[in-house]
């Protein structure tokens, strides 16, 4: 089913995403916990079932984006002008946006309920179930960002435009401190997300970032295999996601 979006002032859009749009299965959560699909031992298999049964009633998904102009200054190749401010994204991100002339600045969240549940469980002497809930919450949040990304791609396709991969402050040498500037491009309280003094998002299970768009833009996989950044904590995650996607595509 195509996603629905509603237009807000200043080229912002709210996208409707429900639990079933995420398509998260028991196998996904087993893999996230480090097991093979269908092989989580008890009590973890039962815990995953419990989380999947509870999640639809607990998730408070909100997602959206705002379209702003984007360009890469000729004299500053390590960053991008996004909606006005210059972001020192690093050359990995800036290079991926070379053909884009517009950015979808996006944010999404699954709300606070699952993180509260996980911390209550841990405080009540059920740390294993708390860990499963927290891991599932991370999976739901990442999947929300992926579904939003696919939605933006579909909306852009209708306008004859392509999209890049998505990038967030803190990834690919982009300083996480630029999160606050990024949020200054979104309406106040967008998706119910606020930033702490140290620019962390609340609710914690939220994702923000940018997606480039343009008439000659094509979406490519992350290029971790060609990247010279050693000791990157995200390399294994992104490489794993890529191979899972390849597996699912068959
Ligand atoms: S290894 Fe991948 S995730 Fe890490 S900085 Fe390089 S491109 Fe980005």
Q: Secondary-structure blueprint of this entry?
A:
Blueprint: E1 4-8, E2 12-16, H1 19-22, H2 26-32, H3 44-58, E3 62-71, E4 80-82, E5 86-87, H4 91-96, E6 102-109, H5 113-123, H6 127-158, E7 162-167, H7 179-183, E8 194-195, E9 201-202, E10 206-214, H8 235-249
The protein binds iron/sulfur cluster.
The dominant shape is: globular
Bound molecules: iron/sulfur cluster
Please, what is the average pLDDT?
92
Q: Strand-and-helix sequence, N→C?
A: EEHHHEEEHEHHEHEEEH
Identify the CATH class of the largest domain: Alpha Beta
Number of β-strand runs? 10
Structure description:
With 250 residues, the protein is of the alpha+beta class. The protein folds into two domains: 216 residues, NADH Oxidase (3-Layer(aba) Sandwich); 28 residues. It is built from eight helices and ten strands. Strands 1, 2, 3, 4, 5, 6, 7 and 10 form an eight-stranded antiparallel sheet that branches. β3 and β4 form a beta hairpin. The longest helix is centred in the middle third of the chain and has 32 residues. It is globular, with a radius of gyration of 18 Å. The relative contact order is 0.16. The C terminus is likely disordered. The structure holds iron/sulfur cluster (SF4). Iron/sulfur cluster binds next to α8.
């Amino acid at each position: 089913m195509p996603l629905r979006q509603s237009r807000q002032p200043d080229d912002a859009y709210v996208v409707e995403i429900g639990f079933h749009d995420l398509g998260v299965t028991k196998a996904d959560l087993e893999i996230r916990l480090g097991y093979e699909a269908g092989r989580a031992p008890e009590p973890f298999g039962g815990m995953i079932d419990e989380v999947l049964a509870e999640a639809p009633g607990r998730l408070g998904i909100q997602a959206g984006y705002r379209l702003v102009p984007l360009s890469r200054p000729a004299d500053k190749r390590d960053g991008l002008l996004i909606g006005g401010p210059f972001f020192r994204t690093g050359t990995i991100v800036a290079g991926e946006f070379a053909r884009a002339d517009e950015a979808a600045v996006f944010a999404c969240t699954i709300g606070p309920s699952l993180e509260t549940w996980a911390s209550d469980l841990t405080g009540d002497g059920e740390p294993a179930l708390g860990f499963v809930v927290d891991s599932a919450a991370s999976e739901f949040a990442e999947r929300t960002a992926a579904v939003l990304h696919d939605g933006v791609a579909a909306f852009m396709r209708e306008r004859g435009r392509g999209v890049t991969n998505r990038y967030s402050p803190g990834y690919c040498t982009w300083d996480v401190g630029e999160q606050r500037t990024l949020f200054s491009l979104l309406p106040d309280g967008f998706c119910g997300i606020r930033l702490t003094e140290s620019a962390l998002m609340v609710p914690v299970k939220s994702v923000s970032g940018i997606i480039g768009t343009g008439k000659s833009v094509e979406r490519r996989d992350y290029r971790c295999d060609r990247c010279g950044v050693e000791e990157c904590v995200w390399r294994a995650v992104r490489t794993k996601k890529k191979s899972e996607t390849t597996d699912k595509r068959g």
